C-alpha cells in the first residue's frame, strides 16, 4: 500500500470515541446542546471517552467528519417538525375540533421534566426524596429509573416499605396525567416544576423483576415473601420473571444434572420440547446416554404439543429448582452469572 492510500484509509475507532472527538471539535454551546439531549449513562460514557481522545491526529479528526457526514446523508429530515405538520394536515382534513380529539388519543406521551431530573440524582438523594412520600409515589419514581439505580434506591428505603413499593411497581398500569401532576408537586422541592404530561405506561411485573434482579442476594427473596403476603399471584409472577427457563443454561454441569434427575420424565419431556436447541443439547450432555436417548425418543413420539403445556412443564421445573435452592441442594445463578 502506497502512502497516498494509507492516508485515505479509514481509521478504526469505537463509536463512543468518534462521538467524543466530534464533541471536542465543536464549540461549547453546540457540544452542550448535544450533551443535554442524552441519557445520564450516555453522558457518563461519552464524558469518559472525551478524556481518552485528548491526543488525536488530524487524520483521525477527518475520519470522524467522514463518518458523521456519511451517516447524515443516510438520515432524512422527515421527522423534524412532524407534530405541527400532522396537526395541520388533520385540521385541514377534518376540522380543528375533530383533529384535537384524535390527536389527544394518538400523540405519543411527552416525559415529565421532574422525573427526568430525578434520573440524574444519586440513589441516596432519590431515596431521601421518596421515603417520606406515599409508596405509590415512590413506585412511580423507581419505575422511571434504570433497574440497577432503582435497586440501589430500593435498598436504601426502610425494609418495611420495600415490599409495598415492589408490589406497586408490579401492578402499575397507565399513569394518568393527574397522577403525574401530583408527583410533579412532590418533586418540585428538588427539581423545577414542569407542565402536566399525558398518560404513559411504566412499571409492571417485568419492571419489578428487573429491579429485584439487581438487588443484593438475599434481599430479593425476603421482599418476594413479603409481597406474597399481600398478593401471592403477583409475587409468583415477579419470581417467574426473575428466573426464567433459559437461565438454566447458567447452571454448572453438576447442578443442572442434579436438577434434571429431580424432575419426573413426563415433565422433562414436555419442558424440553419447547426449549432452545442449545439448552436441549446442554441438558442431554448432563444426562447418561441412555436417559438422553429415552427423553429424545419420547419427545419425538409425542409430536406437536400445545404451548400452554410446555410453559406449565417449564414452570414446574423452575419451581423445583427454587425448592432445591431454598433447601441448599442447588445453587441458582444470580446477577451476571454469579451464584447465590
Task: Give an overview in words.
- It is built from 21 helices and two strands.
- It is an all-alpha fold and 340 residues long.
- Strands 1-2 form a two-stranded antiparallel ribbon.
- Helix 2 crosses helix 4 and helix 12 packs across helix 15.
- It starts with a helix and ends in a 14-residue tail after the last helix.
Question: How are the secondary structure elements laid out?
Answer:
Layout: H1 3-8, H2 15-25, H3 28-35, H4 40-52, H5 58-74, H6 82-94, H7 96-106, H8 113-118, H9 123-130, H10 135-143, H11 147-156, H12 159-170, E1 174-175, H13 177-187, E2 200-201, H14 205-213, H15 219-230, H16 232-242, H17 253-261, H18 265-273, H19 277-285, H20 289-302, H21 307-326
Antiparallel strand pairs: 1-2
Q: Please give the share of residues in helix.
A: 55-70%
Give a count of the beta strands, DSSP E runs of length 2 or more: 2
Q: Name the beta content range.
A: under 5%
User: Could you say which overall geometry the principal axes of the C-alpha atoms support?
Assistant: extended
Cα separation of the termini: 55 Å
Low-confidence stretches: 1-10, 192-200, 335-340
Mean pLDDT metric: 75
